[in-house]
Amino acid sequence: MQLNRRHFNAIALAATAAGSWSALAQTEPTVVLIVGDSLSAEYGLRRGTGWVALLEQRLRQENKPVRVVNASISGDTTSGGRSRLPALLRTHQPDVVVIELGGNDALRGLPLDMTRDNLRAMVRASQQAGARVLLVGMEMPPNYGARYAEEFRQVFVDVARSEKVPLVPFFLKGVADGPDPVALFQPDRIHPNEAAQPIMLDNVWPRLRELLPKG
User: Fold this and answer.
1) 0.90 exceeded by pTM
2) Per-domain boundaries in the chain
3) Model confidence at 181, in pLDDT bands (50, 70, 90)?
4) Which residue of 73, 110, 145, 147 has the lowest C-beta tally within 10 Å?
5) b/e per residue, 135-145, with b = 16+ CB within 10 A?
6) 191 labelled catalytic
7) Exactly one of 37, 38, 76, 105 is catalytic; which is it?
8) Is 72 an active-site residue?
9) Which residues of the chain form beta strands (DSSP E)?
10) Which tens digits make up the pLDDT trace of 124-171?
11) Catalytically annotated residue among 79, 117, 158, 191
12) 45-66 pLDDT, tens digit each
């Protein structure tokens, strides 16, 4: 078959376009979707001081091409997160999904089996959409009773183990279990204050970093 100049030009244009699309794909940032409650939604904090905002700052400092989408809503439960997740996955097409829900389930006295099922469904939906998942665990204060506190903690352990996803065992480690239990909380004694946010980020960062592209 003979190729004239027109054919060569067409081939060259196609190769250039393919290279452009390849370069574009390589420069597209990793998308991290955070689905949480008030602990991730900057409840009671100045804008830009919550742990998610601090995460974005750290990623920029480390020159990591990551775009963070914070889809957290104060007061949300695992049922709410489960119902919102499909649309979030379609819209943002995340590479990583961080699930930080469950605390409000316990505060409302919702069945632990329901919390477990919702978290498992969220993990599976995220994985089916091609995302890696990080599960963020919570614990209940001692006044809820030792048995309930252990059963609630185990919910996150069970889901992480069955679905083979990394787990942050206790999101508020170093905040709620410190020597002065109120020093790092807002006056409502429920929501962490600004001083607590770097600690919360440090609790999440080691496991989240493992899910991000290297380099």
Assistant:
1) no
2) 29-209
3) confident
4) 147
5) bbbbbbeeeee
6) yes
7) 38
8) no
9) 30-36, 66-70, 96-100, 132-136, 167-168
10) 999 999 999 999 999 998 888 999 999 999 999 999 999 999 999 999
11) 191
12) 999 999 999 999 999 999 999 9
Q: Is 188 a catalytic residue?
A: yes
Side chain identity at residue 128, one-letter code = Q
Contact between residue 82 and residue 126 where contact means Cβ atoms under 8 Å apart: no
Q: Which two tokens stand for residue 102?
A: 């469950």
DSSP 8-state symbol, 169:
S
Residue with tokens 């979707």: 33
The residue among 192, 198, 133, 129 whose CA lies nearest residue 159 is 133
Under 8 Å between Cβ of 197 and 174 = no
The torsion angles phi and psi of 160, rounded to 5 degrees, stand at -60, -40
- 3-state DSSP call for residue 50? coil
For 62, which DSSP code?
T
Which of 4, 65, 18, 7 has its CA nearest to residue 212?
Answer: 65
Which amino acid is it at 42? E
Distance CA 135, CA 131 (A): 13
- Radius of gyration in angstroms for the set of CA atoms belonging to the chain, rounded to a whole number: 21
Torsion of CA 209, 210, 214, 215, to 10 degrees: 30
- The confidence score (pLDDT) of residue 26 equals 53
Going from the C-alpha of 30 to that of each of 26, 71, 74, 97, 213, the distances in angstroms are: 10, 16, 25, 11, 8
**Most distant pair of Cα atoms in the chain: their distance:** 84
- The answer to whether domain 29-209 has CATH 3.40.50.1110 is yes
